[in-house]
Amino acid sequence: MVNTWVAATVVAVIAGVVGFFVVLRGSAFPAHAIPNGAFAGAAAANVFGFNPLLGLGGCALLAALGIGALGRRGRQDVATALALVVMLAVGALFLSQSQEYEPQIYSLLFGEVLGVSTLELVPVAVLGAVCIAATIALYRPLMLSSLVPEVGEARGISAHRLEMAFLVILALATAMTVPVVGALLIFSLMIGPPAAARSFTDRPLPAMLLSVAIALLTVWLAIAISYLSNWPIGFFVGAFAALSYGTGRVWAALRRSRGAIPLTAATSTR
Question: What backbone torsions phi and psi does residue 111 show, to the nearest 5 degrees?
Fold first, then answer.
């Protein structure tokens, strides 16, 4: 359980930070496709008997570079969909050659957060630190490119190079988190809490910190309630991520309605 709490905390921090830019840049589709690339790499590692982290990282990186390269001269959504289809096909092929078909599918899709060993904590922490450092180094260019791309281009920021760099960060985050929470659940953590945070505040840095806080609360509550109820952690992670987003949308709607009341009143008195 201690390993579970530590690993889930690291994953939540990374998901909150990287997911903030995923939502800000409208990169939800790549954030869904790249974990499936990692899924195929882990399946290959299981068949050929090498380190699963190498398979995860290698295939996630290939998926990220493929999406970036193909999307440069065409529509990125088409390139992302193509990468997703290819990686799912490759993953299905490798899983069909595995002797542990059903358990392997479950662990790759939904993770094994309760089965994290002490030896696995070190690479998770190292990759997490690399992702955080890279995001901090690219924070200002990413903000300019995401919010005002014209200003970024005027300041010499290459949109394509920055997109490639961000996709590589996303691939590293995926390689680190898929063994813990799975290919499907990392998508919920990278989208739900950051989208909720953006509904609560428009300021970038507070929104990023709030995204991390919501992601942490999501995984901590999921672990605690799963332990007490014996229900799968994945259910609670997905449910709480969706609930946080719904709460954020309600808050944003209430804030807009409160701001509209004085304007309506002022108009009626003129």
Answer: 80, 175
Tokens 């200002």 — which residue? 140
Nearest to 174 by CA among 191, 164, 187: 187
Q: Is 230 left (phi over 0), alpha (psi -120 to 50) or beta?
A: left
Contact 18, 195 (CB under 8 A): no
pLDDT in tens, 179-226: 666 766 778 888 999 999 999 998 989 999 999 999 999 999 988 898
What domains lie within the chain, and their CATH numbers? 2-185 (1.10.3470.10)
Q: What confidence tens digit (pLDDT) does each residue in 20-30 have?
A: 999 988 888 88
- pTM score: 0.82
Residue 82 CB neighbours (<10 A): 16
How far, CA to CA in Å, does 17 sit from each of 5, 91, 132, 151, 157? 18, 28, 8, 23, 21
The distance of Cα 7 from the centroid of its chain, to the nearest Å, equals 15
Cβ 21 vs Cβ 142: under 8 Å: yes
